[in-house]
Amino acid sequence: MYPSVLGVQVCRNTAVYAFRSIRTDLLLSRFLYLFGQECKAAVFTWSSSRVPRRHVTGHPSVEYLSDETPMAAYANVHIALEQMRVRALAAATGSPLPPGEDDEGPGSGDVPRVLVLGPENSGKTTVCKILTNYTVRGGQGFTPMLVNVDPSEGGWAVPGAISAASISAPMQTSTPASPLGSVATSAPSHIPSNALLPLSYWYGHAEMRRNPLLMDRLIRNLGENIRDRWENDVTGRASGLIVDTPASFATSSGTGSDHRLTMIKACVDAFQINVILIVGHEKLNVEMQRMYGNRMAVVKIPKSGGVVELDAAYRERVRKYQLHNYFYGYLIEPPSGLSTKAYVQGGEQTPDLTMHLSPSSMSVNFGDITIYRIGEETMAPTSALPIGAARVVSEMQPLFVDPAQPGSGLYNAVLAVLAPPNPDESERYDEEILDLPVVGYVVITALDMPNRRMTVLSPTQSSLVGRTAIVGSFEWSE
What we know:
Structural class: alpha/beta
Order of helices and strands: EEEEEEHEHEEEHHEHEHEHEEEEEEEE
Helix content: 10-25%
Shape: globular
Strand content: 15-25%
Strand order of the largest sheet: 10-9-8-11-7-12-13
Number of helices: 7
Low-confidence stretches: 13-25
Distance between the termini: 11 Å
Radius of gyration: 23 Å
Oligomer: single chain
């Protein structure tokens, strides 16, 4: 089912890092590190370490050596953000600053809240992951909040979701299907990067232009919930956050350009951004300097020359890998002829700690679960309506989906199961389900129309009776 596996072993312990556009891990010489599921990766070192060809097991599609790297610039950004965290924590706790730290100047107690922007295939997620992993490896006890608002990637969940998680351990990089680790509810929690409890909202589509109003609302919901989580967490609040964004935020042409600046403003407002990083895009840098340069730091950083151009077919395969891994997990089998068992997956998982999961397939009545679709599946723009005509169905209106009706579009559909409404709120409202976070994802694998039942694949055996779910445009079949 999956392409070949590659193993890499460094010669001696040193600060060697492997990264993709989504990952960085410290490599140690006693282990062989496995990469699979078409992972696009590179190995970087600050010193003279090397990886001889005899220490590479398997056959990479492309391999080369490069002397050009943006890692020094990324390290400088990390140092500046770390200084902000130290000053913010000292200001919040009333403790003295470490020797050499300066508490003078405006905004010296600000928490770093970083928005990363850039075009497609610029390495935005890599930058976010490097900065996050550097922070948790620093030994200061910081747990930065990593926010992913790119629904095409899915973050810790499945494609179509936007989410945020407090990171306390380095994130793995063995497969593009789990770029940021996995949630604790669907993966072995003995692996630190899997013991995550992300806050997730369901957008349901890969492209922002499908429903920009819904995306705007979900981003603001995510920001509000992050602030609520930080109320009693001084260290977490001082750790700040890093926001990874979709390429459409940087695209100035196409059908989604009208909403691009609105989405950026939504992120700036919702997450109270005070630092904007622009990855390798001069025009966007000038634009952001003009709009936000007098309010916050706008910094252009170089794009890595090792960034791989990812085509639409590759991205579609990765989404299928993500959905499969969410339900079944994935253990990277070592290449044939391997002479040692000292290999790890994702920089931390040894062979005896497998990622094999056992989802539950259950049969439920059509009436046991209430399913909605947000807005119509295809909706003409308001400008295309007749003069004086009003839209009957809004982009944010939940529409009930009856599984018994032909053309419901539920076969093989991915559903987001929502949390129950807040019992403290006495008043209910029509669009309430838009503000509810997701507790898990399921797939409808069969529809039995005569008996009004459907078969659902779920990562757990929890009952779905009485639950509310939202369906988007994603489908998956084994």
